[in-house]
Structure formats: C-alpha cells, structure tokens
C-alpha cells in the first residue's frame, strides 16, 4: 500500500527509472531537463505506455532484455571466440583491475545518464551524444599515427624532400583517402612490432589489421579510380610492398603459425604484388608528376654514395650466364628462360647504380621482378634448381638491404637457405658466391675509405650521402669446372628438368 500523500510513478521515463528517482512525467520530465539529457517521454512516446509492463517483471518483456544483453558483448557471461583472435581485444584489451576499469571507461560512465547517482551534473549537462559508448580503438590509432610522424617514416628515404613528403604530406592526404591512412598505420604498427619484441604479437596484430583494410580499400578503388585518387593509390602501393615484406618476414620466424608461408612462396607472392602495383603506377604516372608525390620519381640533388654489392653482383653475371649456357644436361627451353632472366639483372642494376639514385638496394629489389616472366616464376614455384640458383643472386641484395631497412630483416638468410637446400648438387659451382653471404654477421661496409672514394668521384664531403653498411665479403668469381675437374654427382630428385627433360611450359 503506498504511503499517505505519496503518488507512485508507473509511466515515468526510462532515465528516471534507471536512476531510481521519481519522475514527474512531464515531457520532458524535470529531472532530464535539469541534467540536460534526452528524455524518453519525448523521444519515444510509447515508453510511458509500456512503463507499467516493464516494471511488472522481467519475464513480461523478454525482447527488451534480449536486446539489452546483445548490446553488452563484453560482459563476463557473454560467449565469444577467443579474445586473442579478435582485433578488438588487441586494440582495446579488458581492464585487469577495478582502478583500471574506472580509468578506461570514465568517459562512457560520465556520458551515461543512467549512472546512479550522477555525481557530476556540471559535466553531464554538456553531453550531446546518446548513452551508448564506443571502444577506445582510436587511442591506439592515434599512437600509431604519432609514431609514424616521429619515427616510422624516417627510414623510407635519405633525401630531405622525400622525408618531408612521407612525414607531412602523406598524413594530410590520408585524411581524404582512408586506404592510405590504413597503410600508414599498418607500416607504423609493424615498425613498433620490430622495435618492441616483448609486444610484437600485439603490434603485429594491429599491423595486419590495418594492412587488410588498406588492401580492401585499394581493391575497391582500383575498379574505377578517379584522378584525385590515383596519386594516393601509388603512395599506398609503395608502402604496401614494404609492409608486406615486414609482415611476411615476421611470419617466416614462426613457421608453425597457420598463416606462415615458406620464404620461396613468400617471395613469389611479393613478386606478384610488385608486378601488379607496377600497373597502378603506370596508370597514374601522368598525374603523379607535379603532385605531392612527385619527388619520389625525381633524382636526388646530391650524389649518393655507391653500394659495393651492386658492383659485386654485376661482376658475377657473366660467370652465371656462362655456367647456364654451357651446362650440358639442361633442356634448351629451360636454358633460354634462365638466360633471358639473367639478362634482365644488369638493366635493373644499372638503374640502381645511377650516381644520384637513392635507396639503391630497394630500387634493384623492386625493379628486377618487373622483368620476370611467368615461365621463370613457374620454375621457381616447382623448385627447379636453375631457377633457385638465379634467385640466390637476388638474395644477396636482400642481405645488403636488411642492414639498413628494418622491414627486410631476416629475408636474406631465410631465402638463401631455402633456395640452397632445394637445389641439386650439380648447380653448386655457380652458387659459391651467394652462399658466402650465409653466416656473415656484418657482411657489408659501404665505403672502407670514404675520403678516397670522395676523391675518386670528385664530390665534397657535404654532398656525399653515406647510408650505414658493413664490409663486403670478397670471394673469387667462380669458374666453370674443367672436364678433368668434373665429378658425376649422385642422383638427386631435386634436379628437376635436367633428368626428365621437362619443358617449362608444362609447369603451369
């Protein structure tokens, strides 16, 4: 029985019911008007008619309860897949203590008029949003963007104009092109994963999350790109190639991971990506020149110090071609494929050896795959020894690149070992120089005597840009063995094509 002189409110607003205060049932009610929140009596007129049924018992309103439960998936009783497999869990991990819970949800609590009691009405009255709160995913993205602008961009180029382009111009453009924004965040997250091994799994998950979103965005835009999107697509494709090297390199360190792939299959997939992204660059070439990305397609104003490994590689090309040309048991079709691919090594090397070319290692690593035909890729995919031996020469530049570019870490060792283990012994004479790179802790130095080199090329110390490298391993160029030196190797199932006379065309 109600108290004398007290009138119960059975059709009050939801906000007053949640706060357990009496509602005067005005529209809006006085409590909601005083706190500056939206009253359900004005937003949902049917609420007053359903009020009595709501308060009579939970069993009388099962649909509403079901909706309330589905809106709170993070409750302890909610059933969900393992949180380690969810990007939301990584981006917004659950609190581990009561104080941490309060700190991470303070904004959402203050924004909810249903909190009881409201101890901060002087703040609540200025809230414009609804009661629902969103996870603080944006906090991690803000951290990654800050890391991009202060550190992650730094190793993309030695030139100040390109460093400005990546640090300042790219984030500005990314605001209008979400796929580019996701790629910046992916690259930044993978760099954090490299720098912080103790948190590598967390940042790697963030990196591939944004990388996936960037790829989906690029695929959608490539269907019908507009003029103002083409430059952003070129920038995204450039960074995507590097971030894929990083993410695949991390996976090579964990071969038991379900998403991990071997080094040979991994590099084949990256070659396919490079060739596809080349088409994107060709499509947008006319719009890139004169745009914010134009410095990437211009030579440096300064002379860039040479990379000795480029010269070493170009000196070994004739010996490699001679070995392939004179190998007696090699089918002619397979031999022609190898010689054609070897012939494309020198043009790519000359492009990277231009006096004012920066990022020399990356220029070669990206340009040579542009010339590779599908026949050669099929031979590599089927582990033909000759194709793997040629790929080992490409791997020498990965050794040079990984001493400077963090996203190339480990690629030289992984690919060189995978190729050497799958190659037949009769190809060993042409593999001596590439194999010498395995096991060298510090294989390169850019210039043993920088002063003498400056005098040779005739530039002043101020104009010579010296990226850090280590000493070049010096070995004698191999020679094709003389008939008296040739020993018959044991039968090896890896010597494909040589024993069976298979044609590359049948490899598809």
From TrEMBL:
Top-level taxon in the UniProt lineage: Eukaryota
Transmembrane segments: none
Signal peptide start-end: none
GO MF entry, a single one: zinc ion binding
Low complexity: bias regions: 46-59, 71-84
A Pfam family of this chain: Zn_clus
Xref: InterPro entries: Sterol_Uptake_Regulator (IPR053157), Zn2-C6_fun-type_DNA-bd_sf (IPR036864), Zn2Cys6_DnaBD (IPR001138)
Sorted UniProt keywords: Nucleus
Gene3D superfamilies xref list: Zn(2)-C6 fungal-type DNA-binding domain (4.10.240.10)
Zn(2)-C6 fungal-type domain location: 12-41
Record bears the keyword Iron-sulfur: no
Keyword match Flavoprotein: no
Region (Disordered): 40-90, 471-508
The protein, known as: Zn(2)-C6 fungal-type domain-containing protein
Biological source species: Setomelanomma holmii
């Amino acid at each position: 029985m109600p108290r004398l002189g007290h009138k119960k409110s059975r059709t009050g607003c939801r906000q007053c019911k949640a706060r357990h205060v009496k509602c005067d049932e005005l529209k809006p009610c006085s409590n909601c008007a005083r706190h500056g929140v939206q009253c359900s009596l004005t937003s949902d007129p049917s609420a007053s008619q359903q009020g009595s049924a709501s308060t009579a018992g939970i069993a009388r309103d099962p649909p509403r309860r079901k909706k309330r439960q589905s809106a709170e998936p993070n409750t302890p009783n909610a059933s969900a897949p393992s949180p380690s497999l969810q990007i939301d869990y990584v981006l917004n991990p659950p609190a581990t203590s009561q104080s941490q819970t309060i700190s991470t949800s303070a904004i959402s609590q203050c924004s909810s008029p249903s909190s009881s009691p409201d101890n901060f009405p002087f703040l609540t009255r200025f809230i414009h949003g609804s009661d629902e709160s969103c996870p603080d995913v944006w906090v991690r993205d803000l951290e990654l963007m800050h890391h991009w602008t202060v550190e992650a961009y730094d190793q993309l180029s030695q030139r100040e104009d390109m460093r400005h382009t990546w640090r300042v111009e790219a984030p500005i453009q990314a605001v209008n092109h979400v796929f580019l924004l996701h790629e910046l965040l992916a690259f930044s997250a993978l760099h954090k994963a490299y720098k912080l091994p103790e948190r590598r799994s967390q940042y790697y998950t963030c990196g591939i999350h944004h990388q996936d979103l960037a790829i989906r965005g690029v695929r959608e835009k490539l269907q019908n790109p507009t003029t103002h999107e083409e430059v952003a697509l070129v920038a995204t494709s450039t960074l995507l190639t590097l971030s894929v090297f990083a993410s695949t390199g991390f996976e090579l360190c964990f071969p038991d991971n379900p998403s991990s792939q071997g080094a040979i299959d991994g590099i084949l997939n990256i070659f396919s990506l490079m060739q596809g992204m080349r088409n994107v660059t060709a499509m947008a070439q006319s719009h890139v020149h004169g745009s914010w990305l134009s410095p990437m397609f211009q030579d440096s104003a300064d002379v860039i110090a040479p990379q000795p490994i480029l010269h070493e590689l170009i000196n070994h090309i004739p010996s490699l071609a001679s070995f392939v040309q004179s190998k007696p048991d090699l089918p002619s079709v397979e031999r022609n494929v190898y010689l054609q691919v070897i012939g494309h090594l020198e043009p790519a090397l000359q492009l990277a050896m231009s006096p004012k070319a920066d990022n020399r290692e990356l220029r070669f690593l990206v340009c040579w795959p542009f010339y590779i035909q599908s026949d050669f890729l099929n031979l590599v995919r089927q582990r033909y020894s000759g194709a793997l031996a040629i790929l080992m020469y490409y791997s020498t530049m990965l050794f040079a690149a990984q001493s400077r570019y963090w996203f190339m870490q480990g690629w030289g060792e992984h690919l060189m070992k995978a190729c050497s283990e799958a190659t037949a012994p009769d190809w060993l004479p042409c593999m001596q120089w590439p194999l010498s790179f395995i096991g060298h802790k510090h294989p390169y130095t850019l210039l043993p005597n920088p002063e003498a080199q400056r005098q040779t090329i005739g530039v002043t110390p101020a104009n010579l840009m010296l990226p850090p490298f280590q000493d070049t391993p010096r070995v004698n160029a191999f020679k094709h063995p003389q008939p008296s030196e040739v020993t018959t190797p044991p039968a090896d199932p890896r010597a494909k094509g040589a024993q069976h006379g298979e044609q590359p065309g049948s490899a598809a």
